[in-house]
């Protein structure tokens, strides 16, 4: 058996740990061969490969990023994309593909398996934790750690200067990072894309916080939107990739708070540092276990399946089940957090 | 409603976060009063109380340890222990007790509720993650982070000096910390109390590792034991509390490895630093949610119950269910990890 | 002897450590009394005081921020500012003042001592490390650590996505944080206020880096300026406090790089997290020693002096010497770093 | 010019950063060639070399340990050691040697240059910071960070359980790590090799600390000795390498404190984790600058010299000057710290 591996979408701490586990178990237990495809679906599309064996993955467990590179190439948007992939798999003697990626990358894998019989196994990957069917994705815990560390640091400035601090964290469509880091960091208000916010209510939290204690910290997901749609972002605030929008909601909100409360407000946009660096032990553990179970799924020829975490168990679910619906923040969990607002 | 709170057993990052959540939600949502009992069950036994209100818990979210102090006092081993507790609860107008602790502390709470009608709610606490009925306990992720950070650091010495490094981590009866940190840290062998180890097999891993790459790192839980019982520990290696045994299994194993392989071996015993410091974001999140659900259990008068994590949900289970059986490492998980041995 | 203490200007990790050392040594060795003035020079100006004794400073060594609060109030810009301060010192029986602050705060102390006979001792404080007469100021090492950690994290994204990453760090007038964190983080180009940069040269570094290895990281101090003055910042990019300018040079530079090289470029603005959180051990050590020597200067009645680090010694220099001239980056040190550009 | 490089003695974070700087500047500015010698002086002695060029050092800035390996081989203790080295240098066309190491490694370099005309430049390296002529050595700041982080963590256990915690840190002959980490971590007593300690005095500090606040933390350097020489260590406590002595002074002291005060006491021995992991930004900066200046010394043919830090300047001193006398803790600095004892 010769297995191709690719990583697609935004980079995410733990990608290398998945591949290391796949290769270690595949080689040592099942005597498989591996080939790495470069830059997500661009690799099989263009036949761009790289060596992937035990020496190649040695020492990669603690390394963020991906040794295979990544891209957002979608073969269904390329001319003859599917047939070119099929030809390249034949050409490189590849019997099966492990695709590690988010909604888009896995969506391609699901269609390739279901519609064209390409033998794919999926491994879910998203910083944002917004894939269905799995309790968590690796990279999320690392992002929450980076964001919480930043919030911890901002408390001292908030204490010393009596100003409002707005922290913009990742999360275009789901507020998991905002919710977890905001709760862990002791934020006084958490704003998420799932629930349009009322600027006046935010200002009330800000003012009540100033009365009770020291200055407030507001955590806002980059995709959060005000209730009445009055937010006017700068033209250049939208980028195709979507992870640094310097003139985004955080900056806008800080200005609104200043205007409405008269308090000084400052914004910090954490940006890419949330997806970089060494994965936390939790993410290394999850990524490693995903890898071990993905190669077992190959052995079981369980094509079209994706590994997922449910409780402390790794299970398999149809890829399509995981990608058909975004996993947004549970309203009950958000309400739990509201006790700390203000 | 006036609610007493106590923390028992070894300290654990996240204890303060639980209490902060209990008090914030109890005061703001349910208009309850609180009183803190000092040093675990010694507090209600001797009527030793302290103020526990919103100012008392402010700023404690990131602080390790417990503002209430802790002890291993067991009222069932004290003369008239139960009746003294009952009298003190009456004397301080306490309607319900939230007991945050491990097997022993919760065992007392279960008996007090079941046999004597004392209205108790339990919150599980153990660094070792060995309580049944909950996927994880707070403090465990922090301990795994400290241990993994130490293993990460030791890799550089292992690389540069070609010597065997043995890391002894916490875990008297269960190997969870060893398993998680060993896997996350890329250890070449992990030894746990649940499975007696064969020193010769460990030496084979050590030697195969030297051949394949650089020097090996062996992670051993403090409670791990060799197969044939030949381990002779120093007399003073057993202490009543059980967390620093400088002459324990790690040191013994390093000497055996030196003797049998001729390679130099060194031991690091992490000890108390695994249970200290600020809780990780995961532990703050879990501890906070445990606190929020514990006070809901008080409101629901669901006495004798304990909050627990199952998947991403907080549920309630009978305290006795959680304490009747130790949650040891699942043999399948251990076998997963063995692919990385050697 | 009764000694007043105040902290002025932006907050800085280590302020509390200075005060703890001042109070511990002052009380235990010299039997002095202390009083804290709130919010920098606003405190003595308005007679706003707070208790400052051993219990008040207990546990503050690892805490960032300042328990006294801070402000940028300048008594020389207030009506009868000096005489109001003199009256309040008499009113509160204050024999001497220890002023902990940067250029502005210390400048006031120098004038009060030299022109009005107020008995002041200075302790230098600046994140930016730009005060003369001292090798380092506390807070700087912490800021460099935060910035370097961020750069370390960005390397993984740079590796995986082949895009230019621009990191904007603190430093309006001096590039010390940029230089130290850029060198420690392995940046491919470092831009500082002391030397106007040539965008085309930056683009050449960017392109040569892409050829040699993976994607480049550019570290730019917030006060760095292009050679030909063509930078047009957004109107709102200037704030009175000066530490978060979301539309500053980093964002501008990323756009220029994209325009001129055709490579995707992203910006991260670290902002306030550089001045928050627990001080590094170096900063705690320096701040503690500054405090110990400041109270010795009070005992020696060495008014108008400031403590300073020279090598490993703490010395005293006239405050005015330290504040008369900004300590900018030594051109030789910058040239040393250039070997790593590109 | 062809330059050989070697690293000797215990590993130390920053070794790779030195070599990276040496090679980057040597290749790019001076067009030199390099060759790495493996495992300290064993490399030139046995002619064991490895490639050392820009690709070899890429990515090594943040990596602890040494890519060249290390040993404690001393050519003056080997038969015909010097002539074998001279032959191997000729054989590999090596014009000059950069020796990175501590007292022993540099001592060999000094003798080879002074007595045998071998062209050596030295770079000082010691975790312990005990080399003369330089304010600091790289690796020291990292060790102090690891030790301080451990002490910070232990405070929470000390608070919660009212027990004495003894932390044994590195430092066989000099107490710099103990002094810096003890001061930065808020220890209540610091014991160093330079000054024999009085156990009864330590017990007095312990008891006064219990009265004033919570439980005491005692930091003890591994080489500290009691006044009256009554310390009986276990036979196996002495190892040839000297960095893990599990039955050393820390454990002994904890037992004495228990015996004399009746308080429970626990020991943590940090061991090798102090010398592992990524170097701090300060150490990367210092190591990088040492490397840049070492290659300049080669260019200047300034043989027999060692680079050193004095204030913020890198200077050159005769190697023999640095190695002739151990730099022990300045008694004045120790007395400064005593204000925090008890």
From TrEMBL, chains A, B, C, D:
Gene assigned in the entry: pfp
Pfam entry (one): PFK
Similarity comment text for this entry: Belongs to the phosphofructokinase type A (PFKA) family. Mixed-substrate PFK group III subfamily.
Statement: the UniProt record of this protein carries the keyword Amino-acid biosynthesis: no
Keyword hit for Mitochondrion: no
SUPFAM superfamilies, sorted: Phosphofructokinase
Coiled-coil residue spans: none
Documented EC number(s): 2.7.1.90
InterPro entries recorded: ATP_PFK, ATP_PFK_prok-type, Phosphofructokinase_CS, Phosphofructokinase_dom, Phosphofructokinase_III, PKF_sf
Highest taxon, organism lineage: Bacteria
Annotated site (Important for catalytic activity): 125
Cell compartments where the protein resides: Cytoplasm
Keywords per UniProt: Cytoplasm, Glycolysis, Kinase, Magnesium, Metal-binding, Transferase
Originating organism: Streptomyces marispadix
Function recorded in the entry: Catalyzes the phosphorylation of D-fructose 6-phosphate, the first committing step of glycolysis. Uses inorganic phosphate (PPi) as phosphoryl donor instead of ATP like common ATP-dependent phosphofructokinases (ATP-PFKs), which renders the reaction reversible, and can thus function both in glycolysis and gluconeogenesis. Consistently, PPi-PFK can replace the enzymes of both the forward (ATP-PFK) and reverse (fructose-bisphosphatase (FBPase)) reactions.
Residues annotated as site: Important for catalytic activity and substrate specificity: 104
Catalytic residues, chain numbering: 128
Pathway(s): Carbohydrate degradation; glycolysis; D-glyceraldehyde 3-phosphate and glycerone phosphate from D-glucose: step 3/4
Protein name: Pyrophosphate--fructose 6-phosphate 1-phosphotransferase
